[in-house]
Amino acid sequence: MTAPLALARPDADQLWELDRQHLLHPWTNFGPFERDGSLVITRGEGCYLWDAQGRRYLDAVGGMWCTNVGLGRKDMAQAIADQVERLAFSNTFVDVTNDPSARLAGKLAALAPGDLNRVHFTTGGSTAVDTAARMVWYWQSCMGRPDKTGIVARDHSYHGSTYLSQSIGKRPGDRVEEFRYKEDGIWHLSVPDPYRRPDGMTEAAFCDHLVTEYEALIARVGADRIGGFFAEPIQASGGVIVPPKGYLRRMWEVCQKHDILFIADEVVTAFGRLGHWFASEAEFGVVPDMITCAKGLTSGYLPLGALIFGDRIWEAMAARGDRWFTSGFTYSGHPVACAAALKNIEIIETEGLLENAATVGDYFLDRLQGLESLPLVGQVRGRRLMVCVENVADKITKAPLPDGVNESKRISDAAEAMGLMVRPIGHLNVMSPPLTITKGQVDVVVDTLERAIRKVTDELVREGHRIG
Fold first, then answer.
1. Which pLDDT value is given to residue 2?
2. How far apart are CA 165 and CA 149, in angstroms?
3. Of 50, 26, 5, 80, nearest in space to 303 by CA
C-alpha cells in the first residue's frame, strides 16, 4: 500500500503564488490581481488580523460587515465542534428537521418585530434575497394576483450576487457587459442620498420627492403588476446611505396602500451593527413583511442566511393545503451553522454587545466626523458601527476626483501599511468593525485613517490635482 503523500505547509510566498495561480476571487479585477496577487490572511483574534508575513492589522472592515463578536473565539469553536460530533449534517427538506435548526427558528421569531414568526434558512444573504423575491411571486399568486410579480428597488442598492438578487440590486460597477441581468419586471427608484440631493432642496422636500417618485412609478406601471419593494434600511455597499428622516416609514405606507410587500434587506444592519437585533423597527419605525439576514447571524464563523417572514404570508401560502414551496438548498438549516448562530446570539446577549455597539458606535461616528475638516473629505456618514468617509475633489460642488485616480484605494493601501484595514468602494472608505471594538481602538482607527488621508492628499496635490 502506498504511503499517503505528506504535504509541507506552504510558506508565505508559496501561499501567495498558489492563490494567484489558481483562485478566482469574488469581484476579481484581473489586471491588478495577476500583477499583484492577494494579501494572504492567516490568523484572526478579536478585532485583529495577521497576514502570512506576521504583520498585524486592526480590521475596521469587520471581515465584510460580518465579524460581529470578533474572531478566534474558543466558545464559538467549541460550540461548532460539539455540534459536528453530535450531528454534522441532516437535511431539512419537506418534513425533516434538526435540533439547532428548530431552536434557531424559534429564537429568530422571538427577536424579530411584529408577526415575523416564520423562518426559511438559506446559505447566505444573496440566496435569502433570491428566496424573498420568489416568495413575493408565490404569495401574490396565492392571493389571487398572479400578475402582481414586479419588484421595485433603488439605485446604488446591493442585494446579492445570484442572477436574481444582482438584478434587483443596482450598484455602480456591479453591472458588467459580459453578464446578463433580469430586466423585465424590475424597476429602480432614485437613491435616497441626502448628501447628493438637488441643490437648494431641503431634506424634507427631498423625502417628499422620493415618495412622489415611487407613487408615480406605481401609477405608471400599475399597482396590479408590482408585488414587492426591496430596501436596505441603510444602503451598505452602495455608499452607507442613511435615508432622509421619515423616508422608510412613508415608503412602507405606500406599500401598505397598494398591497406591495415591503422586504427589508437587513443582511448588514441586523444583529447589532446599529445597536439592535434588527434595525427596521428600532431605527426607522417600520415592521416589514419580510426580513433577509445573514452575516452577523453567525458573525461569519459559518455561512448561513435566513428569510424571516410574517404569519399572514405563511397562512396564505398554506391555506389550500396542497401547495408545495419548491425552493430551498441542501444546506438550508445546516445543524452546525445553526449551532454557530445560536452561540453567536448568546454571546451578543450575555456580553452586552448591542449596548456596546450603541455606545462605542456613537463615539466612533462622532470622532470620524472630525475628519470632515480635511480638504479631501466631503462627508462622513453612517450610523454607529456602519460608517464611511466620502472623498471629493471639491467640497463645495461635491465633485469627485476622476475614477482613475483611485484615491480611496490609495487611502486604504496607506492605512494598511500603517496596520489598519478600511474598505475602498468607489470614492468611499467604508468601516464596519466588530461589535466588541473599544473606544481606545476607535481612536486608533480614526487617528490612523487621518494620517493615511493626509498622506494621499499630499501625493495628489504633488501630482497636480486640485483638492478642496
1. 47
2. 15
3. 80
Residues 6+ apart with CB under 8 A from 247: 192, 207, 210, 211
CB 227 within 8 A of CB 137: yes
DSSP-derived secondary structure letter, 3: P
List the Cα angle 238/295/166 in 5-degree steps. 45
Residue-wise pLDDT tens digits, 308-322: 999 999 999 999 999
Handedness of CA 304, 307, 308, 311 (dihedral sign): negative
- The pTM score is 0.96
For 81-110, the three-class secondary structure string (H helix, E strand, C coil) is: HHHHHHCCCCCCCCCCCCHHHHHHHHHHHH
- In angstroms, rounded to a whole number, what is the distance separating the alpha carbons of residues 296 and 353? 12
Banded model confidence at residue 7, pLDDT cuts 50, 70, 90? low
Percent residues over pLDDT 90 in the chain? 97
> What is the average pLDDT across 177-183?
96
Q: Is 46 left (phi over 0), alpha (psi -120 to 50) or beta?
A: left
Question: Starting from the edge strand earliest in sequence, which strands make up the sheet with 186-189, in order?
Answer: 118-122, 305-309, 290-293, 261-265, 226-231, 150-154, 186-189
372's grid cell? 470632515
> What is the rounded average pLDDT of the residues 29-55?
97
**Ranges of CATH 3.90.1150.10 domains, the chain:** 13-69+353-462
Quick: pLDDT tens for 231-279.
999 999 999 999 999 999 999 999 999 999 999 999 999 999 999 999 9
- Please tell me the least confidently modeled range out of 8-12, 203-207, 420-424: 8-12
Rounded Cα distance, 259 and 278, in Å: 23
Q: What is the DSSP letter of 208?
A: H
Three-class SS state of 20: helix
Give me the mean pLDDT over the 210-233 stretch.
98
Whether the pLDDT of residue 468 is over 90: the answer is: no
The 10 Å Cβ neighbour count of residue 454 is 16
The fold of the 75-350 domain, in CATH, is Aspartate Aminotransferase; domain 2 (3.40.640)
Q: How far lies 56's CA from each of 15, 41, 43, 47, in Å? A: 18, 10, 9, 10
3.40.1000.10, 3.40.640.10, 3.90.1150.10, 3.30.310.50: which CATH number matches 13-69+353-462?
3.90.1150.10
The DSSP output letter for 160 is: -
For the chain, residues classed under CATH 3.40.640.10 are 75-350
